Amino acid sequence: MTGRTALAALLLAASVAATAQPLGLPPVPVPAGNPQTPAKIALGDKLFHDARFSADGKVSCSTCHDKSKAFTDRLKVSKGFNNLTGTRNAPTVLNAAYMKTLFWDGREPDLEGQSKQPFINPVEGGLPDHSPLLAVIRKDPAYVKAFRAVFGVEPGAITIDHVARAIASFERTLVSGDSAFDRYYFAGDRKALTAAQVRGLEVFVGQGRCVSCHRIEQTQALFMDNRFHNIGIGFKRIRGKELETARAFLRAKQAGADVDKTVLTKQNMSELGRFAVTENLTQVGAFKTPTLRNVELTAPYMHDGSLATLEDVVDFYNNGGREKETDPLSPFLSGGIRPLDLSDDQKKDLVAFLKALTSPDVARVAGLAGK
Amino acid sequence: MSKLDRRGFLRRSTALLAAGSLPVSLVEMAFGKSSSQNFTFAYISDSHITHLKGREFVRNWDRGLIRAVAEANLLDPRPDFVFYGGDIAQLGKPEEIDHGLDILGGLRGKVHYVMGEHDYYLDLGEHWRKRLGPEHYSFDHKGVHFVVLNSILTFDDWMYDKWPSGEERMHQMARLDNPQGSPFMVGDEQRAWLKKDLAKVGRQTPVVVFSHSPLQKIYKGWNFWTDDAEQVQALLKPFDKVTVLYGHVHQIQYNQIGNISFHAAMATAWPWPYPQSYRQQASYLPKLTVPMNRADPFFERDATGWQFIDLHSGNAEVAYVLPNNSNRVVRFDPGAGKPVDTQYQPADKRIPPQKHY
Question: For chain B, which end, N or C, has fewer CB atoms within 10 Å of the first or last residue's CB respectively?
Fold first, then answer.
């Protein structure tokens, strides 16, 4: 073996190791225009944690996607600069790499597009535009060096797209499987789940109907469907005001209002969900199915953080899309949402099962980040 | 803004509400020359509200109608009125009709009703008429002549003599593929009325006819059929632009026969298969129809929906609002002289229909 082929073999082995997937997950989709490289990932990691890219110098991506909190903030709705609050709960970045649309309403098609928005949202980073952020980068010798190495660009040519590509590359490394469920279901370890969790899996795929949206496939499970559903969350806020809210939103949008800014600053308009993006009448109040991996670590739940515990979530679904059986149902409710008639034991088993979706490597993934 | 520009605008913004943001003067400029004025209406059909006992009704069918009403209430600008295409009830019970009308009462604006066979055959339409008035009528609106027919009548001996009770008669007619059923028809009396009604209408006036069963013959075995369809079509033949809108079939259908465009409505309750896909052999289903794609059984609303109709050109542009699915628009193509699906007409663009059961 020549030196060159040995090196090639070594590099191949390294790249295979880098792309080997945790049990239960498919390969991470990587866009052709933004290949993964170690230097780019490291740059993205640094950018993700840099609080200088905000109006008060205190807010970074990691403020709301905190690695010590499974890349969430454990708040109902996130806090941006000057402690301003938005309308939506910060979802975990873990396994976001598999999503076909980003944000609760899918208003961005990929991580690259998503990562550009919070800097300039008036209740998140609060910057007027991306120029202050680029000014910081261009004056920082370490960033200048890194951008030159990763993208071959001189400081004056660095754009927000370079920043977004680096952050997205970093986020594509934040995947985690290998849960007790994965060992039970995909590796045949019959002892990986407790008896209650096995019964909970039965509820999950059977009477609970959870699996219809939180999908389990034959060789992997992302526990999401990349679709949008109205499950009844947030409906009370715009009940009786649907037409006024939709009309005001559409008029503002057609007059040039930005969707990202509007839905995070206007509580009622936020509840329009996917409709705000597509203007499709069948998607009023519909939000994206989140993954359930690591759900034990990502409370509170739902797009508005309105449900505090997994028990609350199970009750909500069991009541057919409402907190209490006596609450009114949203007329826009998705067809799959209906009362489940689960017993108390079934509900307990289901919650036990959801706790089997926690990855032991969350700590490892978190340890990799932000070095 | 030219007509083409407005089309582009509407297509970019798939919402039906998009028109709401257009300044009214622009809309009028765009369509001031057409024989009819620009207006729209919503069209909901086939809810099949099913009574269980007491105040209990089948939840799924309730939810379908509730959802259609809520969505139609978001149309902006408001449609001039709403049409309900028939089969409020499943077995014609007063409880079912009343419960369905309670839900439909949530609609903002005027609603016109068409009689369906599921509303009729228990008491021969008595309760329906008590609540809603005459079962055939006509009116003019902004330059368009609207006609409503009861197309689900049948032979007198079947209606009056054959069955021991109204319940039995209703059960027989409620079955889709019942060899003991009887073909629907408009009948001599209504056709005579229609002839007289149309005599006052100018030939250039767009005519829109509502029936529950198709006023064309599709598949007799399932009563996707009106026995005197040709005779009704003959009465409509003298007019330049005629549109027939019908329910009953629970699926997207469209067709052109001479001067008459036909469009079917989705049900809010459940989809029916296409007769040809069920039979796995040729049928009389209009070949111009691009079949809708298969239903996802988990999403109870999939393959159901309602319609929103724009009559600006005097021909119907039917926008199908389809939960959990891709919305579709079927529009009259003046070049082709028939309605076409705006997106899925080319064979390679279609979503394959379900062909196995």
Answer: C
